[in-house]
């Protein structure tokens, strides 16, 4: 999802950062001006703050996808969101989120998204953004084959970790979460019932005509 996008010396916001490993990797690799990871879970953000407290230019905050973002207008160059489609289950939630990222993104700023979609690459969020006059699609690519390949490479180590460290009652859920072969998540992609897409949106420049 980061291919062909300049992150160096940019202000970046990640929506749904989880445990922060991806955020920390981006900061180390691309050296942005600032990188803020947000997640609705206080426990997750506490973990992020403890683990990456010494990482320069990286910070974390508790915020839900439906929360008004505490950033100034046009203060973020890139908004990044990975695997958050399932959270947007109603049009109003999508509208509120898109309004917020539109507000905080700089002119020509980017909204980067990847995750599971319907077989035609559609979802409530993607369809709304596609129809939104404030954004244009720069790239939309089906990467299901890449994701399946990555899951295959990691399947043995993930399965071993779950068997060793996860209690029996939670193992089935963790296998699904890890996308192990044989789980519904993996099989749906392999058999073409769902697809995994990456989409790059760019915010349009709008010119306000001054009143005379």
TrEMBL record:
SUPFAM superfamilies attached to this UniProt entry: S-adenosyl-L-methionine-dependent methyltransferases
Record-level Gene Ontology MF annotations: S-adenosylmethionine-dependent methyltransferase activity
Species for this entry: Adineta steineri
UniProt name for this protein: Methyltransferase type 11 domain-containing protein
Domain Methyltransferase type: 13-112
Xref: Pfam families: Methyltransf_11
Signal peptide annotation: none
């Amino acid at each position: 999802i980061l291919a062909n996008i300049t992150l160096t010396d940019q202000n970046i916001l990640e929506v749904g950062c989880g445990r922060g490993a991806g955020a920390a990797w981006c900061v180390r690799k691309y050296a942005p001006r600032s990188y803020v990871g947000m997640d609705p879970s206080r426990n997750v953000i506490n973990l992020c703050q403890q683990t990456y407290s010494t990482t320069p230019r990286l910070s974390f905050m508790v915020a839900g996808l439906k929360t008004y973002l505490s950033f100034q207008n046009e203060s973020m160059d890139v908004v990044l969101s990975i695997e958050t489609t399932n959270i947007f289950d109603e049009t109003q939630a999508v509208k509120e989120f898109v309004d917020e990222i539109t507000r905080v993104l700089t002119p020509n700023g980017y909204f980067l998204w990847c995750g599971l979609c319907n077989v035609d690459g559609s979802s409530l969020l993607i369809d709304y953004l596609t129809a939104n006059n404030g954004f244009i699609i720069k790239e939309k690519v089906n990467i299901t084959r890449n994701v399946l390949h990555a899951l295959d490479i990691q399947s043995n180590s993930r399965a071993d970790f779950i068997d060793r460290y996860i209690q029996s009652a939670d193992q089935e859920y963790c296998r699904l979460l890890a996308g192990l072969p044989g789980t519904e998540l993996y099989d749906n992609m392999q058999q073409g019932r769902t697809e995994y897409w990456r989409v790059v949106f760019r915010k349009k420049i709008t010119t306000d005509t001054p009143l005379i």
